[in-house]
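Worked example 4.2. Below are the chains of a multi-component assembly; read each line carefully before continuing.
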Amino acid sequence: MIELKNICKNYPGHEGALKDVSFTVKDGEIFGIIGQSGAGKSTLIRCVNMLEPPTSGEVIINGRDMTRLSSSGLREERKHIGMIFQHFNLLSNSTVYKNVAFPLELAGIPKKEQKERIDSILNLVGLTDYADKYPAQLSGGQKQRVGIARAIVSNPSVLLSDEATSALDPETVKSILHLLKDINRKLKLTIILITHQMEVIKEIADRVAVIENGRIIEQGSVVDLFTSPQTETAKKFIGSVISNDIPEAIAHMDIKKTKTAPDDTIVMRLSFRGEVADEPIVASLIRTYNLNVSILYGNIDYIQNTPFGKLIVTLDGHDSNLTAALRHLQELPIESEVIGYVSSHLGSASEKLG
Amino acid sequence: MSPAIWALLLKSLGETLYMVAVSTAIAAAVGIPLGILLVVTEKGRILASPAVNKPLAVIVNTIRSIPFIILMVAIIPLTRIIAGTSIGTTAAIVPLTIAAIPYTARMVETSIREIPAGLVEAAESMGATPLQIIRKVLFPEALPSIIEIMTVVIVTLIGSSAMAGTIGGGGLGDLAIRYGYQRFQADVMLATIIVLVVIVQAVQLTGNWFARRADKK
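Applying the procedure described above to all two chains together yields the following structure tokens:
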């Protein structure tokens, strides 16, 4: 278990790089920290292995407070904490094999044993055929695989990932995230990652903390963050992978805030997650309340294995039925929101389109 | 050219190679670690120590700012203490080495500084000691440019050794001045120049070849 308690970090001339940051990461968990550049996430992850010692606070890893260790004790402890970097930081004049051997060399492990470990790790990251290549001969994704191999070759219990996918193209990002998830499961490795890409959080993190101006402003499970973000920053991040905006074609439909004509139809946004996403909500609106429902926009996304859907619909029917239907929606474990009203002929036009 | 001159040319060549070889070896042995030390003892680096860094930087700068011909004469008393004499090929090695060490150190310092900080950070994150970082990260990463630096140092020392010749150090420079210039033997002058050009070319090509081989970037 990793516990950060009340971490503060001041630099000369820059007070409050981190302000009272606390979080706990359970064994085997992938914990994501997301923030814009300059938010302090880079400093924060370096507090975990004391590359940046915090000004105050405690960093407890497996019961030991890292901030109280001597420099040699700290070096010993760091051998159990792997780290990967945005720019890979590989030795350019050493082969892939030698790069991966580096931590084993430091630990003074005999060559023969080194070879066994390195061969099996290179196999795990899919670089067996690249052992004798130099970093300059590899693609970005392959370089990061070497970085990952180097970080886990000495069987650490924790892996710190410093923007590991930020310098990679989208296809490669997916494959690296897949690899990280894979080693997380196979090796029961706890992973703490920092990123500014919400996609990374969405793909592999179990829990997430949002950091802004050196402070954690929101933390919780990834599904919770996606379905009910509390802060503007979190909403913005989510918007980068799942659009929260009303699609442009719908926004152009002249949605009014209030009902101005008697035959105006309601435009609603419904967001649902998990089991509820499988339920026939729309069908029940039509059958039970005898409403005309037309779907303007629909999207179901998966946050890891949890379905997470969003619909924009217009509802039209008798006032009493509408009121009952809205009440029914309120009772369901979904989020519903009336966006506005449109003239009914517009609503029916889109119905024909849909 | 008479056979005597040929013999003299060969002898002078031997003296030059001797002076350059010894002073290069010492300059490398002292200058390379000194160059690394100039970086790692800097503020914020792995062995940060202003008490070491500042005086070293001052010494290196001071020696670097004295023109070789003046340095050579100025340190004659020191040369006498170290070599037992101030005249001759062995004595010439003292000023050559003293000039070459800070020269080497400054260039090595520059090349060490160019190594991305992230590499050192990665090694630190793996629990490497400062000495391990120097041996396993900084030196291997800078090796191609250190080879290039040593090539430049050798070429510069060949030049300086000719100057050392003028104060009785022997070598090709001495030969060219005494026979080629003072006795108007143009053929000796020409022969000396050709030999120098050939040596410098050979050193440069060999150095380039090794540097290219070491560089995997």
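Take a moment to check your reading of the output against the notes. The longest helix of chain B spans residues 130-169. Chain B touches chain A through 23 residues (CB under 8 Å).
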